[in-house]
Inverse folding.
């Protein structure tokens, strides 16, 4: 059972979570928990302030302390607060010294961000374990840096499954055997030599899937603040509907193209081992949720959901001499490869190629290297809007409906036909919501679709 930040945002919510876990103890449960809602953003904001030599980082450290402090005070009584408060003090002291280091050195590497960002999970995990104990459920807090072994790609580390499997057997199974609930920090891990890493933003889902795959679990439950995976983000379109069953391929595509409800890498380890993943609502636990499994869901060639992702950059490279030449695309991709910058969508013509990039980090360097290959244009603040479904190449008229519904939106780029399960378009960031609403209306509302 994985509980996201939205499920542990306040003392009341933590209590609700403890009740949910207790009610399911007839089966053996391993809990994975994210930081209290908003804490990871706050921790990273403090690091950026320290980097800018802005004394505001001190206020951030204080806010981290006081949010956890008040949650603990509302959850646990009297002297039983002491070990939790001592642990919290230790974490905030560590945080202050990391911020001071960033401030003094005026340097903030991905490795340092990982050490800072993981502090939220280390705090929430102790709090949830204590809340379980306070309600009479034996529980043990487990720091995932001792379990999830990763490579050294700070900021987006990949698990080393074999080594992690050994640790799962050594460190989680004995707790289960004693009849207790291991409460594991989501999001974080450590390299073979013990340096802290994170699995990327939203990575607690991934933790749940990695541990679920290795235990192995009967099923993986991702508990969040919505009734399941929906036809669109319900914050953007109130008429969003829950999808009862979805195939793993569609879920992965949706997550990758922006459905925040699931971390993009989540399902792979679980699905490869045939373990179903459920998305469930902490605030409405009796709702059936969404079941994700390899062949799940109906297989009619229809759209299943709309997703979108902002903060995209489009890069256009044109080279009239590319006409009839070969090797041009290879040289273009070689530049992205060299700067380790993944490309999402591509469109080409005889003399030009446009691509989208999600991560702005290396764009200036990429742009400089591409300049040798042709004329380069960079469009920032773009969004990818995707219609995700199944069997699109067998489905007549789908493209017409997509374009018909978007006739009032300026579409900058299109990727259609690259896969059977996805049609993606690029629009300006401030038109993304409008495009999403129009597409949702076309395919999922008014009794259509
Ligand atoms: P958690 O803290 O539980 O990990 P997240 O904020 O990461 O929660 O993910 C849940 C949120 O994802 C929902 O509140 C919802 O606004 C958003 N979301 C985006 N797309 C979808 C979708 N297709 N279905 C459901 N939720 C979505
Ligand atoms: N707390 C981490 C984040 O905000 C991980 C997660 O929520 O899954 O990204
Ligand atoms: Mg999440």
């Amino acid at each position: 059972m994985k509980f996201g930040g939205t499920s542990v945002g306040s003392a009341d919510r933590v209590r609700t979570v403890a009740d949910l876990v207790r009610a399911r103890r007839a089966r053996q449960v391993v809990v994975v928990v994210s930081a209290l809602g908003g804490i990871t953003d706050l921790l990273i904001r403090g690091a950026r302030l320290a980097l800018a030599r802005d004394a505001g980082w001190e206020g951030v450290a204080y806010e981290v302390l006081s949010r956890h402090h008040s949650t603990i005070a509302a959850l646990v009584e009297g002297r039983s607060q002491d070990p939790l408060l001592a642990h919290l003090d230790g974490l905030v002291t560590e945080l202050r010294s990391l911020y001071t280091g960033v401030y003094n050195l005026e340097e903030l590497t991905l490795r340092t961000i990982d050490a800072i960002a993981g502090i939220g999970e280390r705090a929430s995990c102790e709090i949830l374990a204590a809340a379980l104990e306070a309600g009479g459920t034996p529980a043990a807090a487990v720091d995932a840096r001792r379990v999830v072994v990763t490579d050294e790609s700070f900021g987006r580390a990949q698990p080393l499954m074999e080594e992690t499997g050994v640790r799962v057997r050594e460190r989680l199974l004995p707790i289960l055997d004693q009849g207790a609930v291991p409460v594991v920090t989501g999001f974080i891990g450590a390299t073979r030599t013990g340096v802290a890493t994170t699995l990327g933003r939203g990575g607690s889902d991934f933790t749940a899937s990695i541990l679920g795959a290795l235990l192995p679990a009967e099923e993986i439950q991702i508990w969040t603040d919505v009734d399941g995976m929906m036809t669109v983000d319900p914050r953007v379109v109130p008429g969003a509907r829950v999808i009862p069953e979805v195939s793993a391929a569609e879920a992965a595509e949706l997550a990758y193209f922006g459905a925040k409800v699931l971390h993009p890498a989540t399902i792979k380890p679980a699905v490869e081992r045939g373990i179903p993943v459920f998305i469930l609502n902490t605030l409405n636990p009796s709702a059936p949720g969404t079941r994700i499994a390899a062949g799940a869901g109906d297989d009619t060639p229809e759209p299943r959901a709309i997703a979108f992702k902002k903060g995209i950059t489009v890069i256009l490279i044109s080279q009239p001499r590319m006409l009839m030449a070969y090797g041009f695309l290879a040289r273009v991709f070689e530049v992205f490869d060299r700067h380790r910058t993944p490309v999402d969508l591509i469109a080409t013509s005889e003399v030009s190629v446009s691509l989208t990039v999600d991560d702005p980090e290396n764009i200036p360097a990429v742009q400089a290297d591409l300049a040798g290959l042709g004329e380069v244009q960079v469009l920032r603040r773009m969004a990818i809007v995707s219609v995700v479904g199944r069997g699109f190449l067998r489905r007549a008229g789908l493209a017409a409906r997509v374009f018909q519904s978007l006739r009032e939106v300026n579409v900058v780029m299109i990727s259609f036909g690259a896969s059977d399960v996805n049609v993606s378009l690029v629009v300006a960031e401030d038109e993304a919501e409008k495009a999403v609403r129009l597409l949702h209306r076309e395919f999922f509302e008014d009794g259509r679709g």
Q: What stands out?
A: The two ends are 34 Å apart (CA to CA). The mean pLDDT is 93.
